[in-house]
């Protein structure tokens, strides 16, 4: 199971010790069922947290304990939402550490309050769980329902080891996303026909263009454009016919297209 690293746990503990009272930490441990909230009387805040978090990590990593893994993620969510305004300068480091472990902190701010969702960046992290990935959440938020539907089917087929079907749905998801982004950001006009990806993609990057890329503008060929065209080309090799894709190739395609989709959505922001 892809659970949190030791380094990230250390940062979580450091952040929690600095920003939360002992009572708050006891409550968070109880709410996540990581501890009973009744440590020895003279235990420091760090020593209150360290054994509980390390125990959960061992259970998640060594025994594939999904409940322990979810409890760790829930602890992170509670910690982020409980951060006082003057401790929120710790968020970038925590966000980066979680990203390195394969998770995105989706933070929403409303006045002085913040809410947080901890979402996996890769579908392999939670292929059959009710959790959604960060990419799915972004597609949903942008209203790209067709791309979202194809992507969710790709994840489902991938988890079922139906690699050819997964590849076909990934290709459809990428094409739908490219067309939508080209319409919204590249001045492309939907011709109402199927298989528009090859035309639409040309409005998203500048052939021969040089760095730097400018957010919201077509990608220079040498700063993202060639990657876009290359992964598009890879997604169309072999097709989706049975027997032409093994597990390793399907996983590589899933990782490439998931990463590209996230890159495009961040570059062509709302």
Order of helices and strands: HHHHHEEHHHHEEHH
Widest β-sheet, arrangement of strands: 1-2
Structural class: mainly alpha
Mean pLDDT: 87
What percent strand? Answer: 5-15%
Distance between the termini: 34 Å
Shape: elongated
Sheet bearing the most strands, described? 2 strands, antiparallel
- How many strands? 4
What are the key terms here?
11 helices; two-stranded parallel ribbon; two-stranded antiparallel ribbon; mainly alpha; 270 residues; elongated
Quick structural summary:
By secondary structure, this protein is mainly alpha-helical. It has helices spanning 6-19, 22-32, 45-62, 66-82, 91-100, 134-142, 145-159, 163-185, 197-200, 221-235, 247-267; strands at residues 103-110, 113-120, 205-206, 219-220. 35% of the residues are buried.
């Amino acid at each position: 199971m892809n659970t949190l690293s030791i380094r990230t746990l250390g940062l979580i503990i450091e952040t929690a010790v600095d920003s939360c009272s002992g009572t708050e930490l006891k409550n968070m441990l109880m709410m996540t069922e990581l501890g009973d909230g009744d440590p020895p009387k003279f235990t420091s805040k760090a020593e209150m947290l360290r054994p509980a978090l390390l125990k959960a990590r061992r259970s998640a990593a060594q025994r594939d304990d999904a409940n322990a893994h979810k409890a760790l993620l829930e602890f992170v969510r509670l910690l982020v939402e409980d951060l006082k305004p003057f401790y929120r300068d710790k968020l970038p480091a925590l966000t980066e550490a979680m990203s390195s472990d394969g998770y995105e902190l989706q933070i929403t701010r409303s006045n002085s309050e913040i809410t947080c969702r901890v979402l996996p960046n890769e579908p392999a992290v939670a292929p059959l769980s009710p959790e959604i990935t960060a990419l799915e959440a972004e597609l949903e938020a942008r209203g790209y329902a067709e791309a979202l539907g194809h992507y969710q089917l790709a994840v489902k087929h991938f988890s079922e080891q139906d690699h050819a079907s997964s590849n076909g749905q990934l290709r459809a998801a990428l094409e739908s996303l490219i067309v939508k982004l080209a319409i919204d950001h590249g001045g492309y006009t939907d011709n109402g026909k199927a298989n528009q990806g090859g035309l639409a993609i040309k409005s998203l990057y500048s052939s021969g263009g040089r760095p730097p890329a400018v957010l919201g503008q077509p990608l220079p060929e040498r700063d993202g454009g060639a990657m876009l065209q290359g992964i598009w080309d890879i997604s169309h090799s072999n097709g989706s016919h049975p027997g032409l894709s093994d597990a390793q190739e399907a996983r590589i395609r899933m990782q490439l297209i998931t990463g590209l989709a996230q890159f495009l959505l961040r570059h062509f922001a709302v």
